[in-house]
Every structure is written in C-alpha cells, then in structure tokens.
Amino acid sequence: GAVVSQHPSWVICKSGTSVKIECRSLDFQATTMFWYRQFPKQSLMLMATSNEGSKATYEQGVEKDKFLINHASLTLSTLTVTSAHPEDSSFYICSAPRGGSNEKLFFGSGTQLSVL
Amino acid sequence: TQLLEQSPQFLSIQEGENLTVYCNSSSVFSSLQWYRQEPGEGPVLLVTVVTGGEVKKLKRLTFQFGDARKDSSLHITAAQPGDTGLYLCAGARGTSYGKLTFGQGTILTVHP
Fold first, then answer.
1. pLDDT digits (tens, 9 = 90+) for A51-101
2. pLDDT for the residue numbered B95
3. CA-CA distance, B55 to B76, in Å (whole number)?
4. Is-contact A106 A96, C-beta < 8 A?
5. Interval B18-75: pLDDT, tens
6. Whole-Å CA distances, A94 to A23, B46, B69
7. Rounded distance between C-alpha atoms, residue A47 and residue B100, angstroms
C-alpha cells in the first residue's frame, strides 16, 4: 500500500484562485519532504524542500510567494499554489524519505492541477 | 548544476525485444536510482545503485552503475507490454536525501 498519500489527485480551478495540495507520510515521520513539478511527457523538476518546523528551501527560479509550503507536523506538508494561472497547470508530486536514506524514498501519487 | 542526460527519449519496440536506456552525466553522484512512472501516478522506485561498477538485477531488468559513478544503464530483456511506461533515472547529491536530479525520462512502448 501507499506510504505517502497525496491529495487531491486532480483539481480544476479558476484563474486567480488558490489551491492547496497535501502530502502525508502514512506510517513514518518525515522531517523533510520534497515537492516536484512535472509537465506532460517530461521529467520531474525539484521545486522545494519542505522542512518540518522551519522555512522551506526553494530551488532557483521557484517563487516562494507563489508556491507556499507549510510543514507543520512530522507527517504533513502542504503546497499552496497562490493566485493560480493557466501556466501553473502541471502535475505536482511530493516525496518523503523513510529511514533517512535515498534508497527508501517514496513518492505520492501526484496531483494534476488544471487552471482555467 | 548536475545534469543527467537520459537517452533515448522515446522507444517503441515489439514484445520480446531487448532494450537499453542510458543515463550520463559529467558529474559524480553518490547514488543513482531508477524509477518507473505510470500516467497520472507518482514514480515508483525500481533500484538504487551506490557503488561504482555495481550491477543489480530485477527479474528481466539489469541495472549498472558506471565505475566512475557518472553514468548508469537499464537493460530490459525480452520486453513485455507490461513494461510500457516512463522510466526515469535520478541522481542523488551527497547526503541530501530526496534532492534528486532527474533525467529527462524515456517513454517506452512495448507492442504486443
């Protein structure tokens, strides 16, 4: 079964609205989670590292005010796409390492965001 | 910036054929992972290679890590339609767990 749960699986919203995506580690605690973005038929691009109890670390070129990340507990990280625009439409995926090793990195099932 | 060049980008073959996907970089990675992703789902880890020259087998899949830990390959023997999917290689940067650099991906289609 899934060890990282991501919700919702898909969302359609109007331009200008905000969308929140949740990522939960189901049977382990994750002090760090990672958010990726994937365009159709392309690879995953790391957006930011979510750190429990502290500020997220954003990759170069990713607007922190646009993509708000909150990691309020050891099992939950949220990504909020603020004032969404059509160009924000994409597949967003979170991941969490279990056991502190790359070998035990688990991905959520992803969220398909479509902004009209 | 550590880049991973993955090739080929697209691969369309008949059932029973063999194939190899390559992942190359000019940088050294502490480990390299291979994932398979189905449409609308997150990637699923297939294997992690850590040691230069390491070879791992997973049924009909053979993974190899280059001696210098800069490149890797995935070889599939006697491909099946069920192997169809997006295959991604990803390199880890030091001890930054989860901060993976992904290759561009290979879309594999195996026709019955």
1. 998 899 999 999 999 999 999 899 999 999 999 999 999 999 999 988 755
2. 65
3. 13
4. yes
5. 999 999 999 898 889 999 998 888 999 899 998 999 999 999 999 999 999 999 999 9
6. 6, 18, 26
7. 11
Closest Cα to residue A39, out of A109, A102, A113? Answer: A113
DSSP assigned state of B36: E
Which value, to the nearest 10 degrees, does the dihedral of the CA atoms of residues A15, A17, A23, A24 take?
-150
Strand, coil or helix: B52: coil
Distance CA B44, CA A105 (A): 9
Q: What is the pLDDT of residue A100?
A: 57
* B48: nearest Cα among B60, B58, B38: B58
Q: Which residues does chain A have within 8 Å of residue B50's beta carbon, measured at their own beta carbons?
A: 103
Residue type, A56: A
Would you list which residues of chain A are within 8 Å, Cβ to Cβ, of chain B?
Answer: 4, 6, 9, 32-34, 41-46, 49, 91, 93, 95-97, 100-103, 105-110, 112
- CA-atom Rg of chain A in angstroms: 13
Three-state DSSP state, B23: strand
pLDDT at A103 over 90: no
CB contact under 8 A, A110 and B41: yes
